[in-house]
Amino acid sequence: MSTASLQSWLSKEATVCPWTYGVLLSIGALTLVKFVFKTWVVFTQTFILPGKNLKKFGATKGAWAVVTGASDGIGKEFALQLASAGFNILLVARNEGMLSAVGAEIANRTAGKVETRIQLIDFAKNDPAALNALQTVLSSLDVGVLVNNVGKSHNMPTYFAETVEQENEDIVTININGTLRVTHAVLPGMIQRKRGLILNIGSFAGQVPSPMLATYSGTKAFVSIFTSALADEVRQHNITVQHLNTYFVVSKMSNIRKSSMLVPTPAGYVRSALSKVGLSCGAAMTGRPGTLTPFWSHAIADYLIHVVGWKARFISYTHSLHKDIRRRVLRKLEREAKKQ
Question: The pTM is what?
Answer without folding.
Answer: 0.90
